[in-house]
From TrEMBL:
The organism's place on the tree of life at top rank: Bacteria
UniProt keyword annotations, A-Z: Oxidoreductase
SUPFAM superfamilies recorded: GroES-like, NAD(P)-binding Rossmann-fold domains
Domain Enoyl reductase (ER): 14-330
GO molecular function: oxidoreductase activity, acting on the CH-CH group of donors, NAD or NADP as acceptor
Gene3D superfamilies assigned to the protein according to its UniProt record, in alphabetical order: Medium-chain alcohol dehydrogenases, catalytic domain, NAD(P)-binding Rossmann-like Domain
Official protein name in the record: Zinc-binding dehydrogenase
Record keyword Ribonucleoprotein present: no
Protease keyword on record: no
Organism: Gordonia mangrovi
Lineage: Bacteria, Bacillati, Actinomycetota, Actinomycetes, Mycobacteriales
Length: 333
């Protein structure tokens, strides 16, 4: 099995030298084990946080061990009746082409909907879709008639947030992203009412122009200047779901906080942070609603696919730079 391991803890932007490609030999299956050939592995921004050794909601990656994380694959050898050969499964064993572990570490999945590949279970019908659903509806308590602002809007979580917002009755949905192509996609394909490129000028000014009547909900994937701009544009009683702060994940020193926190007081705002691992109890509702939207074509998605396990680090770094539209995945040939 070809596996990607973390060998040093990056300071600032990770480099290929922080990783190595290892070959791991698996023996015969022990009783209770299955062998899975991965189809897709997920690269996710939260993995940057796990590369350093700090107090967090999830322990750091261990050095000289294979990178863990979401992946989908098919059982190719088995010792258990519940997971016969050919079963599509998801698991958290991460960046490797083949994985052999106890059956308990794998969850059987239905075949992907017609026309989709199994990667949808890492994105729009998986963790990032669930994050969008929970963050918007449970954390930010979006209500019909709300004006919603989403940062990181052309990414995996952001594209789902924008669409769910409209399906749940938002009045106006505004997104920000990092290129003209992404901004065009937001309005043309994903139904955003307005969108802007945060590299074109101050977010505060661009958001005010896009939302002249203010915003009620902010779904924050970015932090920094985006959060500050949202605090300026909030209407009274506004709510933010603090989902990510990708603008600072590779920072080498403390990043400045918003200068306008007092708006939280004067406008009675609620800013709530969350990590999706505490909300898996909503997966059944999500699967039902999102599954129906997806099947009916009411939710569309994009994936940026990088081929080959040996290119996983490039895929991860590309994700952090914005090389992706929608979900970034690595396809295992
Ligand atoms: P995305 O698909 O959105 O990919 C990351 C995107 O971030 C890039 O495409 C890039 O798009 C954007 N980006 C990178 N640097 C910056 C910057 N300095 N300022 C603004 N945008 C930037 O990833 P995900 O959808 O998987 O994740 C989105 C966010 O949600 C992340 O912050 C992640 O940590 C968070 N998250 C949180 C979870 C939770 O449980 N709380 C669960 C899952 C994700 P662009 O070209 O537009 O710059």
């Amino acid at each position: 099995s070809t596996q990607i391991q973390l060998v040093s803890r990056p300071h600032g932007w990770p480099t290929p030298d922080d990783f190595r490609t290892a070959t791991v030999e698996y023996g015969d299956l022990a009783p209770g084990q299955v062998r899975v050939r991965n189809e897709f592995i997920s690269v996710d921004p939260y993995m940057r946080g796990r590369m350093i050794d700090t107090r967090s909601y999830i322990p750091p990656f261990r050095l000289d061990e294979t990178m863990t994380g979401g992946a989908v694959g098919r059982v190719v050898e088995t010792t258990v009746d519940e997971l016969p050969v050919g079963t599509l499964v998801s698991h958290q064993y991460g960046w490797r082409d083949i994985v052999q572990e106890d059956a308990a570490g794998f969850r059987a999945l239905p075949e992907p909907p017609a026309g989709a590949s199994s990667s949808v279970y890492l994105g729009v019908l998986g963790m990032t879709g669930l994050t969008a659903y929970v963050g918007l509806l449970t954390i930010a308590k979006m209500a019909p008639g709300d004006t919603v602002f989403v940062s990181g809007a052309a990414g995996a979580v952001g594209t789902a947030v924008g669409q769910i917002a409209h399906l749940k009755g938002a009045k106006r949905v505004i997104g920000s992203a990092g290129s003209a192509e992404k901004v065009a996609l937001l309005t043309d394909r994903y139904g955003f009412d307005a969108a802007f490129d945060y590299k074109d000028g101050p977010v505060r000014k661009q958001l005010r122009e896009a939302a002249p009547d203010g915003i009620d909900v902010y779904f924050d994937n970015v932090g920094g200047d985006h959060l500050e701009a949202a605090l300026d544009s909030f209407n009274d009683g506004g709510r933010a779901a603090l989902c990510g702060a990708i603008a600072q994940y590779n920072a080498t020193s403390r990043t400045p906080g918003p200068s306008n926190m007092a708006n939280i007081i004067t406008r009675g705002l609620t800013l709530t942070g969350f990590t999706i691992g505490h909300y898996f109890d909503q997966a059944a509702d999500f699967n039902r609603e999102m599954g129906a939207w997806f099947a009916d074509g009411e939710v569309v998605h994009d994936e940026t696919v990088v081929d080959g396990i040996e290119n996983s680090v490039d895929a991860f770094l590309g994700l952090m730079r914005g090389a992706n539209t929608g979900k970034m995945v690595v396809r295992i040939n």
